[in-house]
Amino acid sequence: MPQSTRTPSTMTTDPQPGIPRHLLAGVLLLCGAVMLQAGCESLEYRPMAAGREGEIIVVMDSARWGGPVGDAVREHVAPYLGTLPAPEREFGLRRLSMTGQGALDAIRAQKNVLIVAPLSDNTDEARFLKARLDSSSIAAVMGGDTAIISRRDLWRQRQQVMYVLGATDDDLVRALESQGEDVRYQFNTITRERMTREMFEKGRQPDLEQQMLDKHGFAVNMQHDWFTAIDTTLSDSTGFIWLRRVVSSESWRSLFLYYVDDFNPANLTPEWVQAARDRLSETWIHGNAGGYTTTDYRRDLTSENIDFKGRFAYETRGLWHMVFRDDDGEVKPFGMGGPFLNYTFYDEDTGRLYMLDGTVFAPGYDKREFLRQLEVISHTFRTAGDVAHPVP
């Protein structure tokens, strides 16, 4: 889901800038403890993490889950997404407690785990966290420092575990308020990595991907049930491709890819993106019964400057709807629509602007994970130069 332009820290402290030396020692001790738990067994022999994609297991006692700390997790780790047709959180949240070895084993198996507890408490969760810090680190936290620690592949492969450390409930709320975006970034990143492997391990269409690369100088991964609906060069310097997956007449996903050579990056603004998106949709994305798709400006629309695979970009999210023009030229709604995700960026190596725009139509279903699939496909984008000179 939405990604920040900055690379978030895997551990942050508050109020001092940087990581206090004594708290950093606790992190190093934690790393050593993880190595001891793993023993000499290399990571590839561990089982894969389990659980549903798009879900975070929140390890917290039930009383705290119903109070301000639980509210802070819901608000800052899994906020509601205003750019979906119906309310959905960025992640599903499921609370578990460390009530015995069986519960701990279940937690260790999950894909996404967030462990939150005040070190001043005596709950199972607090004792678990304190056991992973040395005395000086515990003293730092008890003195008012807060920290969020990220651990990849702690117990399973392709797993993200995060610890939220603070002395009191107020400290935990403060840490989540200031670093919730970082937490979301970490969970979103590993979710996209896992989904990329799962979506494309089987049934890719490498021949179609190569045709796209040869004809247009770029490509994205195509799953087995996607097809090319439109593939055209509009002029010597522009091109348009429309890829689709049609599940039924009542459910489909699509991604269009548009490019312009010799583009002036100074012209790339959120307003330009929105105008170009509407113009392209009206020209190319039509319904079976007539009409065309356009942005639904009656609903939330977000635009964020991001780094898209090393390129300056805007990520735009909102809702589309099908419209038509009546005899007087007035735009009228058709009554169907859904969410969209748009990445528009400038590639310095080629002087080319790219627009990748994914849309979902799936009435009666939650849309978040369908949109996340389009995010995954978009992030497989590569140019001919990327293929020839891959980044190590």
Present the secondary structure layout.
Blueprint: E1 13-14, H1 21-38, E2 55-59, H2 62-65, H3 68-76, E3 92-96, H4 101-108, E4 112-118, H5 124-130, H6 135-142, E5 146-152, E6 160-166, H7 169-200, H8 206-216, E7 218-219, E8 227-233, E9 238-248, E10 251-260, H9 270-284, E11 292-295, E12 302-308, E13 311-325, E14 331-347, E15 352-361, H10 368-378, E16 382-383, H11 384-388
Parallel strand pairs: 2-3, 2-4, 4-6
Antiparallel strand pairs: 1-5, 5-6, 7-16, 8-9, 9-10, 10-15, 11-13, 12-13, 13-14, 14-15
Helix pairs in contact: 1-6, 3-7, 7-10
Shape: elongated
Quaternary structure of the protein: single chain
**CATH topology annotation of the largest domain:** Chitobiase, domain 2
Low-confidence stretches: 4-41
Strand content: 25-35%
Radius of gyration: 23 Å
Q: Helical element count?
A: 11
The CATH class of the largest domain is identified as Alpha Beta
Give the mean pLDDT.
Answer: 89
Fraction of residues in helices?
25-40%
Helix/strand order: EHEHHEHEHHEEHHEEEEHEEEEEHEH
| Largest sheet properties | 8 strands, antiparallel
Beta strand count: 16
- Distance N terminus to C terminus? 25 Å
What CATH architecture label of the largest domain applies?
A: 2-Layer Sandwich
